[in-house]
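[audit] Reproducing an earlier prediction to check determinism. Same input, same settings, fresh worker. If the tokens differ from the archived copy the diff job will pick it up downstream; this log only records the rerun itself.
[audit] input (334 residues):
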Amino acid sequence: MAGRLSIVADKVGVSEATVSRVLNGRPGVSQATRDAVLTALDVLGYERPTKLRGDRNRLVGLALPELGNPIFPAFAEVIGGALAQQRFTPVLCTRSAGGITEAEYVDLLLDQHVSGVIFVGGLFSERAADHSHYRRLEAIGLPVVLVNAAIETIPFARVSCDDGLAMEQALGHLVSLGHTRVGLLLGPQDHVPSQLKLDAARRIARGHGQDFDPALVVHSQYSLEAGHASTARLLEAGATAIACASDMLALGAIRAVRRAGLRVPQDVSVVGYDDSALMNSTEPALTTVRQPIEPMGRAAVDLLARMITGQDAPPQELLFEPELVVRASTAVRR
């Protein structure tokens, strides 16, 4: 660090002590000198201290895995609005197949000297993914908030919906309707939210003194098409109801049930997860477990804003309670 102080001091024509005062936010330096030091840091390619990044701009990265699933545009709308209310400008980063990766977006955001980043449903939830870009953000001390359950070794603050409770609500509803063969249509095996849902299902089975049938569990990618393709295995295993890890998987399951010559909910009940846009307008209207998007998104922005301004962040994870929304895709087992 001492070498950098000397280089920046020579560039600006001031003492190392003056550079140190600027970097530590201490008084006794004119605004013109302060601006010159910060500009020299940028020109020389040095990272600004976290608390000074907002002096250049108030950009905040908002990284999403996709926009095809309506839950993510919903989060983007809430988080973007909350950032604007706090006078931050969101920089939207959306992954796509064959496009820019999450790690490459991190490079681009750092080039823009963002004040912080909010990741919604990113690679931090996938145990088998490359997490080196998160380590880089941790090393430079950039404020980061994760929205969704994360692997335990990533140390950022996070805002999550209680996945275990969501599964308890879905299974409790289906069991109350008389279903004893409930299939689980979950995300990939290394995906933390799906692991939490699966753990909850096993715990519920043990609590009722029942055997847990692995034939009633199918892991899938998060898409309507993947849900459709995976549902056949659950129907073959005798499932009369299916609890899904997302609304898109649930819509795929409904399509597969119909292609098999069965009816929803008369023959097979289906429950989704998210309560994303238009789920009350599907045919049948989807019973689902709702994520509280508005309070979760605002909490993520509040957390990030506190960290950017140097305040202590609350406990590492803020866990929000989901809500079962009963509509027409579930019915009493016949």
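[audit] rerun output stored. Observation attached for the diff report: The CA atoms of residues 4 and 46 lie 8 Å apart.
[audit] end
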